[in-house]
Amino acid sequence: MNTLLIRLSAPMQSWGTQSRFTMRDTGLEPSKSGVLGLLCAALGIDREDDDGLQPLTSLRVGVRVDREGLLQVDYHTAKDVRMANGKTKDTELSNRYYLSNAVFLIGLESEDLALLERVQAALHKPVWALFLGRKSFVPSESIPLEDGLLKDETLEQVLKSYPSLCKPEKKKLRVVLEDNSGSIVRTDQPLSFSRVGRKFAPRRVSVTFYDVPEPIKETA
Fold it and tell me: What's the pLDDT tens digit per position in 47-85?
């Protein structure tokens, strides 16, 4: 197996999987659908291009939470909102949740080294702008890591050993791993991002905790 590591760090991130109408949720870490949506933007894969999305769905995803971040909520008021029935509503109120100052190390595991190399190259020169869950939530640090592509190493190996992305707040880091034997089911395996009917399938994950590695040393 080969693993590509990327960094998701920003003042604000949002990774909702159950958002409906006036309530916009966020998970406590990036969803698989959110991560693959980011990769699609980098690669220039359109929402309607299900064939382009399909190779990415085979990636096994792991998330190491280097900084948990703080759950926050914004209260939004929108004017003159166009409804599904074609009518316009004067005012629409919504609560939109997000994570403040979170830092995540994402691992993408695959036997297909060429696919990981293509993803890494696209993240360095993305076709479309990259954001972390919402268009206004832009990354504060580079998403691709210069040494992020590790050949012949598994997802677990690299998430355990790769240096911490920030000053650790705890002695253990929470890690969410895609795991066919996992006890947790999440419906965030994307089948289609089409505007006329997004489709997602369930997948299983497990949650574990790893010792904090030494942090990345800053260069002068």
Answer: 999 999 999 999 999 999 999 999 998 876 665 556 566
User: By residue range, what is the domain housing residue 107?
Assistant: 2-69+100-211
List the structure tokens of 125.
Answer: 């020169």
Amino acid residing at 189: Q
Write the CATH number for 149. Answer: 3.30.70.2660
Q: What is the pLDDT of residue 219?
A: 47
Tokens of 13: 């991130």
In a domain, 187, yes or no: yes
Phi, psi of 54 (to 5 degrees): -55, -45
Q: 185: helix, coil or strand?
A: strand
SS3 145: strand
Is residue 134 domain-resident?
A: yes
Inter-residue contact 14 to 30 (CB < 8 Å)? no
| Alpha-carbon gap, residue 98 to 14, rounded angstroms | 5
Domain count, the chain: 1
